[in-house]
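Figure-free illustration: sequence to structure, shown twice.
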Amino acid sequence: MIRYFRAALMVASIALATLYVLGWRPASGAAPTLPDPKVDETPAAAKGRETVVFAGGCFWGIQAVFEHVKGVTKATAGYSGGTVKNPGYEEVSSGTTGHAESVEVVYDPSKITFGQLLKVFFSVAHDPTELNRQGPDSGTQYRSAIFFETPDQEQIAKAYVAQLTDAKTFSQPIVTQIVAYRAFYRAEDYHQDYALHNPENPYIMMNDAPKVSNLKKQLPDLYVSYR
């Protein structure tokens, strides 16, 4: 498995270089500055634990971003949104399971609101206007989605998408799916904290490191170092 994975990374690096020559560029520029959600939950009076699952392209970058967000106690890479139980990386990568590469975010609602998490997700974690792809990765497994766990999360997410749409924040329509959580399956160990452990990987340098950098620059009040 590890040998296969390393070989795949080498192929991916070559593919990225080819895409670069053909004109593709990583989204390393400044992410859009988004407004605070008009509809949001009130910060909890006491410490607590809430969960939501986000999908927005390769889970390495999404995990790296949310591990740097204030109030997030845990971010786990995995798979969600499909029908296959306990899928593996190769299965999900085939695009036949219905699952998306996802990140389960556990957060303390007394330290950060769900709306603030959405602001991070839509501004620096990924591009919500790309349909079934993110950067060089394409397929339904790289779609943009919010798997909400409570009615309040659903209401806040839909309201924020409507707010951003009305304000014409993006030049293209937001294609993020807002769907009820059904199940989350933890990804293999070698995917966990991949960006942290492999900062010099070309994919991480071109696609994921800029996301964390944008978080620190644009949302400094929400940024924290790795715990």
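We now fold a second protein in the same way, so the two outputs can be compared directly.
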Amino acid sequence: MLRRTVCSMLVLFATTAGAQIRRQPQSFNNDPDYWVGLSLGYVDGITLSDERTTALWQMGYAAQIRATLEKTFGRGATVGVAAGFSTVPLTYYDEEIFSVGCKGCRADADINQYTAFVRIGGGTGFHGVYQLEGGVTQFTNFRARDSGDSVDPRSGAYDGTVGFGGGAAYGLSRTSDIYVTEMLDFVFHRQGPEVEQRAPRMFTLRGGFRFGF
């Protein structure tokens, strides 16, 4: 009799527990499958000694516009691609004729950056974001400020680039947010012997928005 009662209680407990498990909501990722974004950034100035042209580039700060496309692979986590463009003012020293008098030729150049990245951080309200990226950076389209004449290199090489950073974001809704991040990129540009042999570092402060779909 006792055995039958115990067995009946076990069967009842198992049935009740199974029903409760089935009634529990299943966890799922309700983030959008894709995101598109646009940001405006501040790129700090850097100095490069170019091995190919033997010129020294003292670049000032500049604005950068950057577009992104991302694919969600987990809760608050995406993998994406980005393209950033900026035009920077610089002082151009041609080292081959430096002693003759080219001491500070004013010029402009374009910086194009193409990267793939992983972004962690999402949700509504305030939250942190962290990013790791890798790709290429191109210094190109050098031209004299006064005359507009082309200056070497007319078509720059693509330099390997890796970077990391983070910041803060605010989720306006499940499908939109705004953010401010700071990135540190190491650009592996082939430099001349006149500078310390280490990868140039680019600091970029960005503010932007994303929309999910």
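Summary for the second example: Residues 138 and 158 are 5 Å apart (CA to CA).
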